[in-house]
Specification:
Length: about 120
């Protein structure tokens, strides 16, 4: 179950990138062709923020638990951006999945990842 939750987390992270891109594109509707740049830029902003702050292998002084909370917050912001771009139902579903995943991370922990690394070695 814990491994499935880590897989869900990964899928949600990818969805957050897509949500940021879609929201940027939709919210820049009046920008004409530049809306493509806004969409790509929003996705890149999430990717860079994730790589610098949240990535598990990043050594930045933050604990794994703190990185998970920050990652959850970033994903919730992308869910809110979906709501702002007119995708309210999708935003609610995405936000609920993010919160469910975060709760399961607390309950199940990340020990499954360590176990999986041991099995694959």
């Amino acid at each position: 179950m814990a491994i499935a939750n880590l897989f869900l987390r990964f899928v949600l992270e990818l969805c957050a990138i897509a949500a940021a891109s879609w929201s940027g594109y939709e919210l820049a509707a009046g920008a004409g062709p530049l809306r493509w740049l806004v969409g790509v830029g929003a996705a890149l902003a999430v990717i860079v923020l994730w790589a610098v702050v949240v990535a598990p292998t990043r050594r930045n002084g933050l604990s794994a638990a703190r990185k998970e909370r920050i990652g959850t917050a970033i994903m919730l912001v992308t869910a809110a951006s979906l709501a702002l771009s007119g995708e309210g139902s999708l935003a609610i579903i995405f936000g609920a999945l993010i919160l469910l995943n975060a709760a399961l991370l607390v309950v199940l922990g990340r020990d499954a990842l360590d176990h999986l690394k041991g099995v694959m070695a």
